TrEMBL record:
Gene3D superfamilies, sorted: PPM-type phosphatase domain
PPM-type phosphatase domain segment(s): 151-379
Record's protein name: Protein phosphatase 2C domain-containing protein
Pfam families for this protein: PP2C_2
Amino acid sequence: MKIPSFYFGIGEKPMEKGIIYKEKEEFKEIHWVLKNANAGKFYEFSFEIEDFPNIKIKTITNLEVTGLMFENNRISGTPMSNNLYHLDIEFFHIEDKENTEIKRVQLLVNIDPKDLWKNVPADKEADFYKEDEASFQGRFSDKKIVVVSKRGRSHAHEGKFREDDFAVNELPSDWNIVSVSDGAGSATMAREGSRLATISVNEFFSSPEVLNEIENNIEIIYTSDNSEKEQDGAKEHVIRRLYEGVLYVHHALEKTASENNLSMNDLHTTLIFALVKKFSFGYVILNFGVGDCPISLVNTDFSEIKLLNTMDVGEFSGGTRFMTMKEIFNDHIVSRFRISCVEDFSYLVLMTDGIYDPKFLTENKLEDTESWKTFFNDLNGVNDDLAKVNFINDTEIAQQLLHWTDFWSRGNHDDRTLAIIY
């Protein structure tokens, strides 16, 4: 029997529409679970639609309220508020572009843990008021320096003061000094103890007489035509001057305690400092430390890291040591001083435990090259916040570093102070 030709005309179109309808429905039935986002952190999610070559996503409505954007089948951006968002995926079939349809998905944006912490202002009328953060950038010998200090979340949550502090000074005869301190959380006026420790040690070494004596002895130490005995004697003279500087800090703390009816315990603070000058034979670094804050020297190709100070762990374990304690001025104090000379270096870094604890975890990692490479990769933007510190185009480096120090680390909410000579 001959089949009428109109049957082909009737059957062909419904078959095409059926395929289109079927592919649309199959796309609708896909169960997409968008991975959770976190408020304040970069987010991205790509829709895998290779199995649907005829389906195109036109747009995603309601996405703008999240702070995210959609492009090339990918959601990306940084959501600012936590919420459960209902998103409508508007799509079409390439053979039926005029008739778009909607597929609904959900996106959960978790609260930023930082938002759970209050930021209560400290009392501006209180004795020894201190700003919540401070920063400095400038020259340091023939290199540059950036230092930032930020109140920790634990202190901000309770409206307490930043207890860390720092001071940087250009000194006579091309010497430079940077000092960093961490006031004890248990000390009622630790904020003043830390401030006083840094400015007083820098003040002591601003004396031309002190620096000239140090410099004359440095020349003896690193000049080859001097005997070993002469060099040893010169080292003793340098350390004696460094010792006098530390003692000067202790006396300044005693004086402040007496004048303000405080005990020395009220001013408990750690202290580290580096006194630096470039000579014809290299950079001389004189340093001291009491407490658990490290001073680290990174060489030019990251092949060697030196921890320059003795931290109050290991040999000095059994309790944190502070500049207010007379017992630090015993026979062991000589081991707290170091005289170093290097041809060049990439970075000289001083930090408080607010940086050291979350980023290095243990003391042995402070001399581990891979840990330091990871640390500087972090500074270069390899972190959850994508916070980058630019050491090349460094006009805004202090603000960048302050932003970086706001990183989240569970259980680590102490004040954060970081000084980098580069």
